[in-house]
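Supplementary Methods, section 5.1.

A reviewer requested that the exact input to the structure prediction be made available. We therefore reproduce it here, unchanged from the version used in the analyses.
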Amino acid sequence: MANLHSFPASQKLKSRKVISKLFESGKQVKAYPIRAVYSISEFDSNYHTAHVQMGISVPKRLFRSAVDRNRIKRQVREAYRMYHTELSDLAEKQNIYLAMMVIYIDRKEPDFNHLIKKVKNLVDQFYNLLQDYKS
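The structure derived from this sequence is encoded token-by-token as follows.
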């Protein structure tokens, strides 16, 4: 049985082509201290490995230390991992591809409980966007 709260490599956004396209023509949503740039399209199994792919970025100009940047990325990844299953299920059911890059934009390190609430808020916003996409 597959673990419901997993975040497999296929769901990690790694393609430079997709990432550059996101920043050129993607839309954005915010749940401060998180901003997400995203793109929604039809799923094509020739090009996409999963229905929902996510990347995380913490700017070096906000956090000079790699240790701090990596800790924040780990916390965001863990918070996302807890709530992404409904989003993935809906995208799969509607045959939609969602690519998103989550960017942490605050200057201070987050409280994990606060971060969980904000990531949940972000996932809910994406869930509503996916519901409205085919409507």
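The chain has three helices and four strands. These observations are discussed further in the main text.
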